[in-house]
Amino acid sequence: MTVHVLEPACDWRAADVADETRWTLQLSPADIAELEAALACAKARASDLLDVTKDDFPLPALAPRLAEIEAQLIDGCGFARIRGLPVERYSDDDAALIYWGIGMHLGRPWPQNRHGHLLGDVTDHGKSGADPTSRGYELGGVALPYHSDGSDLVGLMCLRKAMSGGISTVANALAIHNELVRTRPDLAELLYEPQPYDYRGEEPKGGQPFYTMPVFTEHAGRLFVRYIRPYIEASQRHPDAPRLHPRAREAFDLIDAMCADPAFNVYMDLEPGDMQFVNNYHVLHARTAYEDWPERSRKRHLKRLWLETARLTDRPERFRNFSSHWGEKRTKSELKLDA
Fold first, then answer.
1. Which helix (H) or strand (E) holds 66?
2. Can you tell me whether residue 291 is helix, strand or coil?
């Protein structure tokens, strides 16, 4: 196949996004008042967060600005931050409902795991990275490498930050794709071929414990990226999984090196109340290692959403049905750390 540069309007370097105001929505006192009014409306209309819709969380002034963020995520730099929610005013449940309500203005929730969680908890679940069924959101303290998640958009809201570390970072996978096309088209072409991924024990009932899909997919003139190197490497524990070619590992090494290059990434230290949204198809995200607080109630804790955006009207088949078997349940994580 012949590979070529895609979506140049979304191809940025760190210098292009150095001005944080370009991708940060700073909430004003009027915005916060509107969010609190929407919170009261949602609580009056529904007893379960999962039943709250966009209409149940009215944001007449904020909604147009959230639509601008959605456009930026799909047709711009691919990431955004909402800052200034005074999360200390609210219980964790009310903060999560505000976050959920904002998320409903950006997309439709997708399940994040076999439990059907539409709202998840990113914190120390007591799992070990040596456990072949553990997933990144369950691991405490360790750094997470640059990766994508299984949805159009991924959102994180910080309830509490770590004692030190745990800094979020994003890297422009689309820019990396285009750079590979220009400088190493042989490796770019290889990354359009299917690669094996470990299901981590969350495969369909009776299905094989791995799946295959390319790192890069072109569809309708857009780039779609799926890259989770630890899951690719973990697939090799399954005898029936396709074996990784040495040149594939060369390509992965180059992606990892480019993600770590300051020219391609942006670091942001999420403060309590901050919300980050990322386009999984253009931007990879990671976090640095961290040292947590000893008290359970102070531990680093983020809420997570996976969202389908209406702005993206055409997706490759594999990006529509990857986690369809997780949708048999519709639940939310009930992990409590604030008690």
1. helix 63-75
2. strand
In one-letter notation, the amino acid at residue 253 is: D
Other beta carbons less than 10 A from residue 290's beta carbon: 18
Tokens read off for 138: 């369950």
Q: How far apart are CA 321 and CA 40, in angstroms?
A: 35
Give the C-alpha separation, 49 to 51, whole Å: 5
Per the DSSP assignment, residues forming a β-bridge with 265 are 171
Q: How far apart are CA 68 and CA 257, in angstroms?
A: 32
Tokens standing for 58? Answer: 């009215």
Q: Is the dihedral of CA 161, 158, 46, 324 positive or negative?
A: negative
Query: pLDDT, tens digit, for every residue of 45-84?
Result: 999 999 999 999 999 999 999 999 999 999 999 999 999 9
Residue 331 is classified by DSSP as: B
**138-to-149, 168, 201 alpha-carbon distances in Å:** 14, 16, 14
For tokens 């959920």, the residue is: 100
pLDDT band at 90 (very low <50, low <70, confident <90, very high): very high
CB of 283 within 8 A of CB of 72?
A: no
Q: DSSP of 122-165, one letter per residue?
A: ES--S--TTSTT--GGG--SS-EEEE--SSSEEEEEEEE--SEE
Paired tokens of 100: 């959920």
**Torsion angle defined by CA atoms of residues 223, 228, 233 and 234, in that order, rounded to the nearest 10 degrees:** -130
What was the pLDDT predicted at 269? 95
* 208, 237 Cβ separation under 8 angstroms: no
- pTM beyond 0.85: the answer is yes
